[in-house]
Write a structure and sequence with these properties.
alpha+beta; five-stranded mixed β-sheet; two-stranded antiparallel sheet; 5 helices; 18% strand; disordered N terminus
Length: 224
């Protein structure tokens, strides 16, 4: 089985990493072969990332607001019922009135407030669900996606079918897919070329909305 060369792959811009080949007169066997391919463009621009419902942050904020507003409302009602102001509210009002801006507790409180506010803003404007890759939309009524871990398993099984591959590890990122394989026989360039073809075909069959870049690295297994 032999795959297409880098020049035959349409829509790809290969960047070859120089392998460790035999030195002149040294007789050393090739130990690694690698290549990187950038996506050829295109893709489904309408398929955006999935938005997380943010249950944990929303629940946390709701609990904090509920407790704070409940305590404040209870104390206000108590004051209206001719009861004394709660100690915690009196202490808090005195601290706000007497503490200087350069007080350590004021600085710590302000820092915590800034961090929490920044975290909430990031949660509000970012989609989340980084582990879910959007797929092409064939209908406006349905959206589909695939988990990165599932895509990695599919591509790993495809790569293991290549002759000469002993072990392979596939990492699926949002923009690049990396495959690191060990070949115990056949020329490394030939194995890597077959992996290029198999993985490229497998990526297309995943039906992703945006074609990710591909990086393939093949080496000999370590001697024991």
């Amino acid at each position: 089985m032999s795959g297409p060369t880098e020049g035959e792959r349409e829509g790809k811009a290969p960047t070859l990493e120089k392998p460790a080949s035999a030195e002149a007169g040294g007789g050393l066997a090739q130990s690694a072969s690698a290549a990187r391919y950038e996506p050829g463009g295109g893709g489904d621009a309408a398929a955006r990332r999935f938005w997380s419902v943010r249950r944990a942050p929303a629940t946390l904020v709701a609990i904090v607001l509920l407790i704070t507003s409940g305590m404040l409302l209870y104390d206000i009602v108590s004051v209206r019922a001719t009861r004394p102001v709660a100690t915690w509210r009196r202490t808090l009002a005195d601290d706000f009135a007497t503490r200087e801006l350069d007080d350590p507790w004021v600085a710590v409180g302000a820092g915590v407030a800034v961090l929490v506010g920044t975290w909430l803003v990031v949660m509000a404007v970012s989609p989340g669900l980084r582990a879910l890759l959007p797929m092409r939309r064939d209908s406006d009524l349905m959206r589909s996606g695939i988990e990165r871990a599932a895509a990695a398993v599919i591509l790993r099984d495809r790569a293991m079918e290549v002759s000469g591959v002993q072990a392979v590890r596939v990492t699926v990122g949002r923009r690049r897919i990396r495959a690191q394989a060990e070949a115990h026989f056949r020329e490394l360039d030939v194995v890597r070329s077959d992996l290029d073809a198999v993985l490229d075909h497998g990526i297309k069959e995943l039906g992703l909305a945006r074609q990710p870049a591909l990086s393939v690295h093949v080496r000999r297994p370590a001697r024991r």
